[in-house]
Amino acid sequence: MSKRDSADQTTEFAFDVKPFSEQLHILKDKGARHVEPEEVAEEIRKHGLNAMPRELEAWLCNFLDGKIEKRGRKGLSDSEKLFKARRVRLIHSAIRAAWRGDSDVPDEVYELLNEVEPEFDDADAESVKAWKAVSYFFHGHCGHQKDLSNLAGEFAPSASK
Is the pTM of this model over 0.85? Predict the structure, then answer.
């Protein structure tokens, strides 16, 4: 075997960590809410129920009984809210400019307005229609316009106010 052939071969290290050790560590150090059910299920598939430690067995029973409160989704940080609010305000301004006939508005804004036009109620004010279009841009449907408007108002207030 030449030097080159031996250099091309890679050495793989294989070792089997004690089944459920990571989940057991999380349970003991962080608490029941931090154990991920998907990871426990993966370990069960790999090693079977017989390898599960008693503490995790108790956790699983409590989880299935609904006694363990699940962690909620982590919200956006203030800097992420500020960034999103600025994007929301920018899209909102572009939509309002398109309705005024501003020639500097990108074609994508007009395409967005053509897509979302059927969602508008004729009785809606122009400002409501604009926020519905913003919601459509960010979420793919109308319905979040109030949340987006509030976010922009709080983190990126309009300069025209």
Answer: no
